[in-house]
Amino acid sequence: MKVLEANKIGELAAALSAAGWRVLLPIEDGKVVRLAPWSPGAAVRTDVVPVNSIKDALFPPSEVIGRFGLDGGDFTVQEAPVDTAKTAALCVRPCDAASVSLLDTIFNWDFPDAFYNARRSAVTIVSLVCASADEQCFCTSVGGRPDGTAGADAVLRPAEAGAKLILEPLTDKGRALADAAGALLSEATVTADEPAEVPQKFDRPAVTKWLAANFNSPLWQKWSLACLGCGACAFTCPTCHCFDIQDETTRSQCVRYRNWDTCALALFTQHAGGHNPRIDQAARRRQRLMHKLSYIPERFGLVGCSGCGRCQRVCPAGLGIVEICQAIEDIQKVPAR
Amino acid sequence: MIENIYQPTVMRIAASRDEAPDVRTLRLEFAHDQTRRDFFAAYRVGQFGIYGVPGAGESVFCVASPPTRQEYIECTFRRVGRVTSALADREVGQTITFRGPYGTHFPIDSWRGRNLLFIAGGIALPPLRSVIWNILDRRSEFGRVAIVYGARTVADLVYKHELADWASRGDVQLVTTVDPGGQTPDWTGRIGFVPTVLKEAAPSSDNCVALVCGPPVMIKFSLPVLTELGFTPDNIYTTLENRMKCGVGKCGRCNVGSLYVCKDGPVFTVRQVMAMPQADL
User: What is the pTM of this model?
Assistant: First the structure.
């Protein structure tokens, strides 16, 4: 098996970088750890879940999807280039790698999105089996595993108490990356460490079943009373993919951006004429939960949540998906009278 | 070259007509004949387009002209926000952007030989107007055509010149109405709300398909009347107007239940609409 010394992640990044890759790694950035472009001297941190996911590299918070030349009242349609930079995303959490299948689906049903697909085909995802998990992690409740390999082109498995990493290529892209790593990898036989333990916190199919029948439950009001409608949950979510389209102009140019948006915000469904179907925060919070755990399973046979726990870590009101799912499970345990 | 699904085509405004206060129709010609042919190869009545002005943005309206008229398309909209104001401010000869056609269509080919009842309120006539003209342009294929159309006031009725055409051509039963107080001294149509007028007109449901489009309150009170007349939820069609941005099932804005109005709609039967989470409509 191919083995990398764990303290040589930076050297691997340097080697790939020298070979023309853009390298993404979880890097310390002030008080947080962010999946970000690696540069020499960057402090790589794999012990915590980074605040952002691989989604940012495939579907960035803001990107250009159109350009127009402006000349008085006239305009011309111009090409908007796609991003094809060859990218290696290293030490990606298995939950994040697994979440990419939903993005692949959304950005390709009927109408293939060239902007997403250019980035997607240029990225090689190397996940890192979780050696630790925190109390917000719940991948095992939504079909994932701390050592899951779904969505990964290669997987790094910690060995010898984290001193070494076994690189296991899974796809052609993963094999190409292993080849590029060259002499940094040695052939050796080591035993992988036990992955982190992530206890299952709720029965996802049971929750999905309850949701399908309880759009009108009064509990949505209760569950959303503390929600500030800030959208932080969506903006850190690896599967939330809703966006807005806005134009920015100068005298001679209009640039059309798509920017992340979220159903948590009141303006999301606000019509110009004044009507807003999701009039209160309960309706908006319900939409987010329903979309992830009822509509996406029904429509695409996938789950719109990878259990990364980011929404719960960032929520300023301390709300989370898990507490609602557990409450739903508890309701179902109460015997019918 | 990549295919950018968000990149619009350019349309030239060939004509512009004011229908009602703040309501305008633009007749749009394709800048390139190949684009025109591609559009009409795909376009079926009921589908929508995304119209825009670079700098202001894009808005979603139905294509208000039928696929039987292949020289141009028309859209009718109310000046209400930033994009519709920018569109309304464009003059004949200037250009706008267009994407489409998107979404589902009315299955009119399966309605051959059947009678048709159109019920519309106010600014909601445009999505049915394309169907009406599509049917009238293929008149011999269909049975009786009845239209019940109302608006708050006489001024708010759109396509006034076409209403006169429909009333006089002899093969359309047209009933127009305005809300009480909305009439003018020379108004010869009905006075009353659409559901009430519909009940009085009592069109037969025999071998008939109904198409309803209007404000939610009009639809709400028209449906029981239609049921009383014998229409089933499978025989009543409508078209939904959710807010949209992308039009191609990505941006998530028009998601209602597990459906995306931009792809699964905008055309639905009332049975389909009744199965949706009503509070999200």
Answer: 0.95
